[in-house]
Amino acid sequence: MRYAHLNGPWEVHFLENSPFVSSLGSLSNWRPDGIITRSSPTELYGLIKNSGRIPTVFLDAPQAFYKRCVSIHHEMHRASEAVADAYLRQGFKNFAYVGSASVPQPFWSSERGKAFAAYLRRKGYDCAFYRPKTKKDWGIEQKHLMEWLSGLSKPCGLFAAFDLLAKQVLDTCLAIGVNVPDDVAVIGVDDDETICENTVPTLSSVQSDFEGGAYRAAEFLDQLMRGKIGKKALTVTYGFKRIIHRQR
């Protein structure tokens, strides 16, 4: 929106379901001049007929599509390595990663875990991975997480794929009497203050440069719509700003 204010005017429509406004029942009745999407090219083609002809920028598209689209990609390795390094500097020798409950895991979740573990291996340490069993019933899933957290070698530096998942870890630690951060330290991703400031204890999190990445997405969409970069494949990465340490 900041880019649109500076370079517009653009009519920006957020494609989401809301019971309080008229929905886009069919995109054939409202055809955009350009699209910024978290969908994959395959998913988008299923939603909009001939969408390949509409200038589109994909946010965090799966790597398999890099050669087919313009994509702004969150470079996850440096953030994962920064979390691992922060734990190492704090003196931790045991480490764990909790990924998404979706099956298969979203690539961003699996990549964060792989990068975190790979960095620790280079430093001579192992990393325990938690594999969620269900995303449909937290009452059932939490029992599995309780057992896994209880069995971790402690003290442990734990990295969660995103803040809401990290909150579930914190809630479970509280339920079984695992002290945070002395027994298990927890860091999430996204720095969602609504979540991070309202957990017990408050949650440390990676603050990614989402605004910078989104601004680049709008910039590339503008160039696509003006025909300045054609339809050639292009992938640009954005990183993270810092780790916000809380846990007070």
Structural class: alpha/beta
Find the CATH superfamily of the largest domain.
Response regulator
Strand ordering within the main sheet: 5-4-6-7-8-10
Number of domains: 2
N-to-C series of helices and strands: HEHEEHEHEHEHEHEHEE
* Gross geometry: elongated
Instruction: Enumerate the spans where pLDDT stays under 50 for 5 or more consecutive residues.
Output: none
Q: In percent, how much strand structure appears in the residues? A: 15-25%
Could you give the count of β-strands?
10
Main sheet overview? 6 strands, mixed
CATH class bucket of the largest domain: Alpha Beta
- CATH topology of the largest domain, what is it called? Rossmann fold
Q: How far is the first residue's CA from the last residue's CA?
A: 34 Å
Helix fraction? 25-40%
Radius of gyration, taken over Cα atoms and rounded to an integer in Å: 20 Å
Whole-number average pLDDT?
88
Number of helices: 8
CATH second-level architecture of the largest domain: 3-Layer(aba) Sandwich
Give an overview in words.
Helix 3 (76-89) crosses helix 4 (107-122) and helix 5 packs across helix 6. It is elongated, with a radius of gyration of 20 Å. The longest helix has 16 residues, at 107-122. The protein folds into 2 domains: 2-74 and 209-241, Rossmann fold, CATH 3.40.50; 76-207, Response regulator (Rossmann fold, 3-Layer(aba) Sandwich), CATH 3.40.50. It has helices at 2-7, 41-47, 76-89, 107-122, 138-151, 163-176, 193-196, 210-225; strands spanning 35-37, 56-59, 70-74, 94-98, 128-130, 156-160, 184-189, 204-208, 234-238, 240-244. It is an alpha/beta fold and 248 residues long.
